[in-house]
Amino acid sequence: MPVFRSFLFAPGNHARRVEKCLTLGADAVILDLEDAVANAEKTATRGMVVAALRRDRRCLGYVRVNSLGTQWSHGDFVAVVTAGVDGIIVPKIESAGDLQTAEWLLAALERERGLPEGGIDLIPIIETAAGFSNLAAIARAARRTKRLSFGAGDFTLDVGITWSRDETELLPYRTAFVVESRAAGLEPPLDTVWVSLKDPEGFQHSVQRAKDLGFQGKLCIHPDQVPVVNDCFRPTDAELAHARKVLDAFAQAERDGLAAIQVDGQFVDYPIVYRAQRLIARADAIAAAQR
C-alpha cells in the first residue's frame, strides 16, 4: 500500500534532475510539463518524461500536465497516458466539470490503449478563487480522484493575499481542504509547496502546520525538503508507544465493562482509540512501503 507524504517536483526537460529525483526517497515524483518547462520545449519534453517513468524506481511516478484549455493540455494527456505512469496532476482545476473532462479523457485513452481503466491516479491542484469556491463539488467529481492538492502560490496571487512566513492567512483555506476532503470521502489532501528555499526553519514549521491540520503530505520543490516531510509525517516512536498503551489499556477497560478511562492523565474514549488505531495503521503502511 503506497503512502503519500512527499511529492517531489522535477522539470521534465532536465534529464539529470529527473534521473536524480527518482532516487531521493520521495514517496512520489512529479515530472513537470507545466511551469518548469519553457513553452518552446513542452512538446519535446513529453517523450522524455514517459521514457524516464519506464525505468526501474522505488517511488510512484506522476506527470503534471498543462492546465485544461491551454494549447498543450490535450497533447500532454495523449503522450503520457501509458504504462509506467502512476498518475497525472492537473493544475488550476476550477470546477467539477474541469475534473470530469480530465477523467473522461484519461479513461478514453486507457481504453484505447488497453490499460486498466481507472488505474492511473488523477490529482487536481486547486489554486484559484474559482476552484476554491467549487471545492466541495470538485471533491466529488471524479471517481478515480482519491486526494486533492492545494496550490498556494497561484491562489494567493489570484486572490491578492500576501503569503507570509507564518502562513496564518492560509489557515481557513487549508482547513477547508481537509474538511471538504473528509466530507467527500477522500483521503486527506496534499499541502502546498514552500518556496523560501533558504528558510529551512520556516519550512519545518509549514510542514508541521500541515500535519497538525490534517493533511497527509506536502508538495516539494527541492530534494532537501523530502526527508523533512517524510520525517514529520511519520509517527514518532513516542507517539506509537502512547498509541499502543492507549489500545492496551482500553482493551482491558472494555473487558471490565468500561468505555471511558484515563491514560497518563488523558481522558480516553472511543474517538481517542480510533485515532490511536489510525496512527498505528499509518506507521505500518509507511514501514511496508519502505521494504
From TrEMBL:
It comes from Ramlibacter lithotrophicus. Keywords: Lyase, Magnesium, Metal-binding. Residues 5-223 form the HpcH/HpaI aldolase/citrate lyase domain. GO terms for molecular function: lyase activity; magnesium ion binding. Substrate binds at R64, E127. Mg(2+) binds at E127, D154. Pfam families: HpcH_HpaI. Its cofactor is Mg(2+). This is CoA ester lyase.
